[in-house]
User: Fold these one by one.
Assistant:
Number 1:
Amino acid sequence: MNTPALTAITVNDIGEYIRHQSCDRRFYLKVHYDREVRPLPFFDRLLNTLEPVLSQVGKDREDQWEKELTDNGFRDLAAGLLKGKHDDVTWQDFAAELAKLPPGMPAYARQVRVQADLGAFAVSGLIDFVLVKWNADRPRLWLVECKASRRDRTYHRIQVALYRMLLQRMLVGRAVLIGGVVIPADSIECMIARIDEDRNTNQSILTLPALDLTSEEADIERLLDVGGRLDRAVALPLGDIGYRLDTKCDGCIYNVHCLTESARQRRPELLGIEPVSARLLHAAGLKTLDDLAQPAVFPPPAVEALLRNPGFDENLKLLEVRAKARRHTLPAVGSPAPAEEHDVASIPNTGVGHLPAHEGDNGRLLRVYLAVDYDYSENRIGALSAHVTRSDGRLHTRFVDTAGRWEPDPELLVTVPYVRKSLRNRG
Ligand code: SF4
């Protein structure tokens, strides 16, 4: 009997899955890219233009780490292995060079390709650096994941743990030989090199400690197992995979798929609700924003049952208000949207706000309106600008008609009762 072909994925796919809060839909879209994503018109033109910039920043950092190694006498074992346009080396070629390494010589290779079957998946990946460090006459292998990041993130550790698991699978029944010394597969160390938060420079790749990745490896085993969460997710139809549109989607390349498809189907997920709530709404017959925005005067039994379901913690009245506002941003279906619906709606019964009054016993409030420009390539704030005012007016951000297009007015305005004043040329 033929065994079914394993699904081919990369270590990055798992890392990105974890980074996006274990979004099954993201993993599904990556695996079924040709079928689900590529046919979307203009998809590639909507891809995030920041990605190549971030990728170049990461490469520049890796060059600095490589310089640290060569400055400390490490030999580049991949130098003679790079062929033509390929800038990665296979583990097998690298292992052949390792065997020829003279005792006591520290060495490294960049972009070493590893590949093995893990559970239901055929996984491949590129290890940023493989180092050979010597302790007296004992060599040790270190796998290094480099990140142009200042924070310790779970997906960094998952990635480097995956590299080690792949390598250990590849080494079953084979030994790594370095300068005539046999290295057991279970003695390979892992580390992650990042940017030092205090000094904004690369951490030293030579002094970082080895990581204990026991729990990450157990999680990976479960995740990739036959019949595990990811194996089940890729076998489902796309419409059956729950998803939540929230802040994690800002940095996801598939948001142009999820947002447009959700809009086309007018799905309640556009309200950012939990997947379980969306599923319960669907089961109760509330399948679209329109169903939520126009509830029946006498709710059908399925909706009555939904309200009694302890697993459903949304407020239908509130969802109705939000659905009306959200669907107003979508193209109208059939008849035009009712005149009383707008893109923005006030939420009833939210109590009194915590913002202090503009005028109080101690005089008028000093207000600061802050704009933050974030530099994504360096992962830090690039500029702060503030509008500081004690005026009795309110800042007014309006749109103006520019050659037939409504655009934000760059001029700063305040509205005082019955008068609108420009702030141009005021200190
Ligand atoms: S946009 Fe959000 S919901 Fe869609 S795949 Fe990406 S992370 Fe998941």
Number 2:
Amino acid sequence: MSENSPLAGLLAGKKGLIVGVANQNSIAWGCALALRAAGMELAFTYQGEVMRDRVTRTVSDLGDVPLYDLDVRDDAQMASMFDDLREKWGRLDFVLHSVAFAPKPAMANPFIETAREDFLVAQDISAYSLVALSRAAAPLMPEGGSIVTMTYYGSQKAVPGYNVMGVAKASLEACVRYLAVDLGQRGIRINAVSAGAINTLAARGVAHFRDLMRITAERSPLKRTVESEEVGRTCLFLASDLSTGITGETMYVDAGFNITAG
Ligand SMILES: NC(=O)c1ccc[n+]([C@@H]2O[C@H](COP(=O)([O-])OP(=O)(O)OC[C@H]3O[C@@H](n4cnc5c(N)ncnc54)[C@H](O)[C@@H]3O)[C@@H](O)[C@H]2O)c1
């Protein structure tokens, strides 16, 4: 987005937390670039020491930004991050939740073989974490705010290889609707963006992912896959006052793939 874009300055003065950047291919990074270009001040998280250097390098493009170690399963770590943000910024206007994980066997084996423990891990990291994050962030949004999460069409249809993650995304989208009801009275909106297939670190854990990219490009009305920048601009819209009437929704940014018959 150029400095002359009508969107530049749209989010000036707003402060946002981005959870889910692993590297420059991450959808969360595409969102961060769009939000930043529109003037939002950003803080980021990384998932443990293993990810720290990579995420630090990625976000360094944006200068000196607050960076927190956060495993979304760790409530104490989450609480201390929000305490620190409250001290630093006093408030928060936006949170992006762009996090998902399922153990390898659950993604590789037929769905019927999913172990109870693997099912629970997928639900915990990919769906419950949105509830925990929203609950912890809401007190920092006394004048309202916006929360966005990332989902995928495998929540609605049985997409080959998406398995336990499809079930977790169905749960995530339902969480968005119930959270929207609880947060609405506080002026906080929450929405999901259902992105089309994008080649990222997490996507490589999905069997037949390259086939999925190819089929999407062939079948979608726009005859292509989407870029994380396009997801980012929708995220910008949902973070901004352009979308004040929208909450509890799942918005598709998938070149129209979801409206076609298989
Ligand atoms: N890539 C796609 O095709 C696609 C399509 C639709 C939706 N999505 C969703 O977008 C989101 C981002 O994924 P991505 O494709 O950008 O991949 P990515 O690998 O770049 O991002 C996934 C992020 O989840 C984080 N994460 C996993 N477990 C975590 C934990 N316990 N605590 C904290 N962070 C944790 C990882 O560190 C990583 O930053 C996910 O929810 C994914 O399901 C991806």
Number 3:
Amino acid sequence: MSVPIRVAAATSALGLRLDADLPPLVAALRSRGVDAEAVSWDRADVDWSTYDAVVIRSTWGYCERPASYLAWVDAVEAVTRLDNPAAPVRWDTDKRYLRELCARGVPVVPTRFVAPGERATLPERGHFVIKPAVSSGARDSARYAPEHHDAAARHIAALHAGGETAMVQPYLSRIDEGERALVFLGGMFSHAMRKGPVLTEVGVLDNDRHPHPGLARHTPTTAELDLAAAALSVVPGACPLLYARVDVALADDGSPVLMELELVEPNLFLADNPAALHHLAELIRTRAGG
Ligand SMILES: Nc1ncnc2c1ncn2[C@@H]1O[C@H](COP(=O)(O)OP(=O)(O)O)[C@@H](O)[C@H]1O
Ligand SMILES: [Mg+2]
């Protein structure tokens, strides 16, 4: 009898309880004869070399300790196949990649990065957003009006005190029409969802916001698909990626702009997309050598 392929779906204590994609993904892998299990990335007692592949799923909390997370990423890749691989993961953990995409002609949300020690010039007109360069789940992010300059400056000072680089962006009000999340599996477009705005209140920092309110299926436009392809073409490392999520918002003129490229641990909305779930399980099995 042949030995089954072993796959770890890397998660976290919170992910084990709350990641809706995790149980169906593990079940879909097991139904293909893969010896799959969900394992918290920060457990000290795991020998990752015993897996044929480690698939990054809900490794939530990595933003609070990016250095130890990236050390884990490198350590795992040194002993087995890591999907997504370390190079794109490292690149994607810091939204300063938006600069590179912008320089390569990809339309992105206009962004100013303010590193610790630098002074921010805040917009005099229109609502704007302050958020950290390393983030997920709208962590430490808030929307401000020009009359809130003092609160916004305090927000930036708090990020700097934690050693973090702040981002200043205009608030894209057409996000009310939905932020688009285009999911790619094995380098091919798979499915897309639309979600409502997260930063609905002005001047409020609230880390308990739902990161994906009002989810609905979305059929991307050609312009959105073109933007996603252009963004993905800039990602470093060997292609194709196991998965990618390209988050797109609409600028004031209605043209799509990149909000972020999610290559680390995006919610892929698999529970709502059974065909994508099984396609991903099959990709994982074959990439792991099965
Ligand atoms: N410039 C912006 N304009 C409008 N909404 C924004 C803007 N930046 C962030 N948001 C809102 O905050 C959420 C989280 O921001 P995002 O850049 O996606 O960071 P994260 O990595 O934390 O998901 C977005 O999904 C969106 O609803
Ligand atoms: Mg996001």
